[in-house]
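Minutes, project check-in
Item: structure for the 157-residue chain
Input as provided by the requester:
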Amino acid sequence: MKRWLAVAAILSVSVRAGAATDPERSTAPSAAAESASAGQEIPRSVFEIPSSPDDGLDPFFPKSTRLFGQRASRTNTAPAVRVSLALRGLAGVPGNRLATLTTRDNPPRSLILAEGETGTLKTAAGEVRIQCVQIEDDGVLVEINGVRQELRLRDGG
């Protein structure tokens, strides 16, 4: 068995040596081939996205029409962010009161505002602008992203 492997190795080496010395089997380009390729220009590839099926198709998904679909237009208006607020407490004297507001999100976020003050809360739905319009004895009037809402304290019973 070892003799056959040795004979096969010697034959493969001799075949490779013969191919390197044989000019017909050589892989190096000949002078005629070099002169022919020197006169030709390599073409440039141009890629264009077709606007209709007549202009061209996706080569990987020829039945797809995603290239020819309508482009989505963006709107400038942000979606309305809904937030659920609760009035947790009022503090201070009647001329200088503070209201403690809390979101009902998880985790809850708190904001303390005086009358006429504006603050922002970051919620899961986005950032919310809250303005305290008026503080009364048992409630508060707030403006959440331009929409007014009245919040009342819960009864202790």
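Outcome recorded: The chain has a mean pLDDT of 78.
No further action items on this chain.
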